[in-house]
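Researcher: Here's the sequence for the chain we discussed earlier.
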Amino acid sequence: MPLIFVAVLGAASIYCFYKLDFFPGIVIFVWFISKLFGYRLDTFLQGLYETKTQHDSEQKYNCSIDLRIAIENVLRHSAVDTLFEKLQMKNIISIAIKKEDWVNLMVENYKKKFEKDHAVDIVRFDIKHNILWKNGTVDFFDSVYHDIFIPYEYKNGRELEEARRESIPRLDEITIGIRIRIFIVNGFIKLQVGEYSKEFTPKMIKDDKYFGVYQRFETVTSFPLLYFSYKHRIPENYLNLTVWATQYGEDIMASKPNSIDNWREIQKDFHDYNYVCSVADEESRFADKKFMDIIARFREKRDAWLNNENFGDTIKRESRYWMHGISDCNSYMSIDIDNYNASDIRERREKYLYTDYCQGEPSFQTARV
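Model: Thanks. This is the structure I predict for it:
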């Protein structure tokens, strides 16, 4: 059917509604939709259903995300070694200072700048009815993202970065300090260090005289949040699905022959994540083969990733994660997530909070002789 005819049907239905001729308007509109979707009205209705389901789940969402960064351990990571050597080669820091002493100096600079007794950076995110809060304030950036900048020099309570930033571009900030950031992308929590300029990058992806493609941040550790699915049920938009944070996206920027397989796999994982979250509260979920297959696949991916990143061990992990949240840590960061709309929390609330009676443990009296 020519596209022009479909467009005419759409315009005719709008005209009928404008003239308040509802019956012919509805008939023509249904005809228009059937032509537009090739008589696949089920596709259209399924799209409407999925949109409504996702909207309802996001409106119900109620979760807290607590993240902690062990600053000293991050600075001791091998990702910082190359930067340290380049800073010495360019006389930005003293050639005589050892890495250990430099790390201790950076830790003290962090404590002074942020007025803390311990070198642990803490940030809390709350998502309530799809509104994001960061440390108790609505975050209009609308993304789970946090970064800190630690200057190489800090004197008299005043950062040298404040005086120097006015005279240097953002991409050259690596010459006066290091940035540590933690955020969610493609369903993973990533902890990274940078922000490297082209001169300081650990990896040139595409060497170009004027622009080039180079690595700005290095990942210290990461956490596979996506594969915990209904334990947290974070709305998809806060998991930040993007092709540019994949190997496929990197290959596109570098104009290399590329494979789309890894990007397709991530998209499939997101689709499965949404399905698991949509049926997690149904009593028949354990009889749902698709649900159980996804859970098993996610568990296998999750445990392999966590073991590789030294997050706890499998036995303890299963005992911690069966409830309504997530709690784990390694040497570089810790994650604590509570899902306040989890079914077990609702059941406890209904049984113990809204009633004026409770079922206690039986009491036993020991007979005295």
